[in-house]
Amino acid sequence: MVSFPPCKINLGLSVVSKRPDGYHNLETCFYPLPWHDVLEVIPAETFLFTSTGNDIAGKPDDNLCVRAYRLLKEEFKLDPVNIHLHKIIPSGAGLGGGSSDAAHTLRLLNDIFSLNLDLFSLMEYAARLGSDCAFFIQDGPMIGTGRGEILKEIPLSLNDKFFVVVKPDIHVSTADAFANIIPKAVTPSIAEVVSNYPITKWKEFLKNDFEESVFKKYGEVKSIKEKLYFHGATYATMSGSGSAVVGIFDREVKISDQFPGATVWCGFPG
């Protein structure tokens, strides 16, 4: 079976509070975009994971697709499979590509082995693999709270908007993103802004708390956001902890050549 795991962007990201377990409580709006990896899972005599496309950091045994298979294998005694991942979504970008691959591995295994896991169960397994994995079990916009694993559907459609996603050749570490972050709740909430405010107001009210520390260390990321606004974006933001930056436009624009050395995806989400 073949699946096409999409990326996500974050429309606003607030670091609300520090948790006793060392993690942070967040609020964000996850929005899927059709910049896809390609994932194939088939029954086999022995287990095998292979990949093509973009290089993937780390050992193959540590890949989230492999971990997703092992997680279900422990409980359901799954037969071996071959997993092949063609990696297209850039890593270290704040686009959730690895999390999406893991979630779609769970979805495919659920279908292949007729495990009959419901949506809630799949989301619980996904949350054990990573904070934003649970989002990719479903296929629509969500408000994420907690570590990002507490999800609520939101009736937000940006299908008539044109997106430009720019990933510079920069990898932002989690430590860099959290540098000098002071957790605080925001008013109005991200959920309120994306639900009730026109997109022309998002620039004023919809913020990503990670931008300040990332922009200080990586001026190129800040410059990309400024350039997207210069070319007419209604709203622009860094996604997640970076380094990808997203511009939302009212119409199609042809500005890929304005970002030399970066990986750029452009398109309508619908």
Summarize the structure in short.
The protein folds into 2 domains: 2-153, Ribosomal Protein S5, domain 2 (2-Layer Sandwich), CATH 3.30.230; 162-185 and 199-267, 2-Layer Sandwich (Alpha-Beta Plaits).
Give the helices and strands, then pairings:
Elements: E1 2-3, E2 6-18, E3 24-36, E4 38-43, E5 48-53, H1 64-76, E6 81-87, H2 97-112, H3 119-129, E7 142-145, E8 150-153, E9 162-167, H4 174-178, H5 190-196, H6 202-205, H7 211-217, H8 219-230, E10 235-238, E11 245-249, E12 263-267
In the CATH hierarchy, the third-tier topology of the largest domain is known as: Ribosomal Protein S5, domain 2
Overall mean confidence score, pLDDT: 95
Spatially, the strands of the biggest sheet line up as: 1-4-6-5
Q: Bin the strand percentage.
A: 25-35%
Oligomeric category: single chain
The biggest beta sheet is recorded as:
4 strands, mixed
CATH class term of the largest domain: Alpha Beta
Helicity level: 25-40%
Kindly name the structural category: alpha+beta
Shape: globular
Amino-to-carboxy terminus distance: 24 Å
Count every beta strand, where a strand is a DSSP E run of 2 or more residues: 12
The rounded Rg comes to 18 Å
Order of helices and strands: EEEEEHEHHEEEHHHHHEEE
Query: Number of DSSP helices?
Result: 8
Number of individual domains: 2
Q: CATH architecture of the largest domain, please?
A: 2-Layer Sandwich
Unreliable parts:
none
Description:
- It is built from 8 helices and 12 strands.
- It folds into 2 domains: 152 residues, Ribosomal Protein S5, domain 2, CATH 3.30.230.10; 93 residues, 2-Layer Sandwich (Alpha-Beta Plaits).
- Strands 1-4-6-5 form a 4-stranded mixed sheet, covered by helices on one side. Strands 2-3-7-8 form a 4-stranded antiparallel sheet, with helices on both faces. A 4-stranded antiparallel sheet has the order 10-11-9-12, covered by helices on one side.
- The two termini are 24 Å apart.
- By secondary structure, the chain is α+β, with helices and mostly antiparallel strands.
